[in-house]
Amino acid sequence: MTLFESLVGAEPRHDAPVLFDTACVMGGSIAGLLAARVLSDRARNVVIIEPDDTAATAGSRPGVPQDQQVHTLLPAGRLWIERWLPGVSQEAQDRGASLVGPDQQFVGYDDTPQVPDGVDHQFLAIGRPLLETLVRDRVTALPHVSVLRARATGLRYDDGAVTGVRYAETGTGGQAERGERAEGVLAADFVVDAMGRSSRLSHWLEQDGYDQPPLERLQTPVNYATALFERPAKLPDLDAATVLQLFTPRYPSGGVSVAAATAIEGQQWLVMLMGYGDHRPGRTIDEFRAQCAALPPIFSDVTSNNVTREVVTYHQAESRRRHFTEAGRLPARLVSTGDAVASFNPVYGQGMSSAALHASCLASYLDSGADLDQAATGFFRLQQVVVDAAWAVSAGGDAARIDAENGTQVPEEVRQQRRAMEQIVRAALVDADVSGAFNNVSYMLRHPGTLFDPAILEKAAAATEEATAG
Questions:
Q1: 3-class DSSP assignment, residue 30
Q2: 48 against 464, higher pLDDT
Q3: Are 20 and 362 a contacting pair, CB within 8 Å?
Q4: 3-class SS of residue 249
């Protein structure tokens, strides 16, 4: 748990030694950009291979199909990114995003609001395309960081280590402009896979005689619907600027399990509805507004404003993680990060903050003096601490809900853990100390194991007993 918190609080090292001539990051989304930021202090050149056109202004792009849905940069991720890219939060606000303090945050469970924990946690309410643009602009402005518009197609090796990345260009000009694919190999001393859920790295490893990391899947079919609406009121005039409402199966929400509204750039409200399984939130504005009418009043109030973007849906069938620590034989000078390693139910908001902590793992690993001519076992062990923590929250919560709905019998140990977690969640509604401990875990500031501290469990039991008696 101390290790987890040290990764959250990691500061940039200003005297980092140069370890590589050229480092390559495959994928230019948030995970890849943050890995490139870490490598920029430790390599003479950092090349990001990205197939999408990232030169345009902030907007949705094919490589991030979920980027039009609600995104949350949890406090752990925002603090880490702010340390490594100073001033990015202010720049986001200058572009219209909202930095939301505790007095304008609302979290509710059915009809009950969560009690404030008294801590000044701040959320950056911002659309994903704009945030990615701000991070990309900062990272690619660093000396010796460049972007190659191409698709990574494989790896090159020598003596058990990765020595290059094969690619096919996707940009315009030359052969690509004539409909041909210019192919090449980028020589590299260190390579990061940040190609997201669709990463082909496991296939390449097996094809090239290495071990595939075992893949764990949790069937959690989730359906998102998100729309944008005008926001007449400015941020200081709002009672709430970030709203997260969770519903148990017994609440008459019309199949909506989670609803969220955030005050983002462009004087807009971004509103999201999420349902599990067969529950699919409205695909049209009329259906969307009808669903919101069955929810707490803030959702019907917000969606009564003029529409600035129609409903966009997104479906994710499963959460998944790749266990690199269980792969027996891997090449040296290769790591994987972000959704390429673990992708969760997006409603928990862990993706971008996990990517930041994976970058923190990379910095720690490279500064540890590890033998770079051996497989990056030390990195994957560090990363496992972060993945385990995020997986426990999201996959654990999803599995508990699905098992309850299906009447699935689980082992007694699992049942006891879930019972304790349910008690903590209920106590967080009424007890500020439990609420604070729960928020620290939800915001990825503390390890989930801290919730099972005897003092927290005792407070949770007392609070729920008092609430029941009352």
A1: helix
A2: 48
A3: no
A4: coil
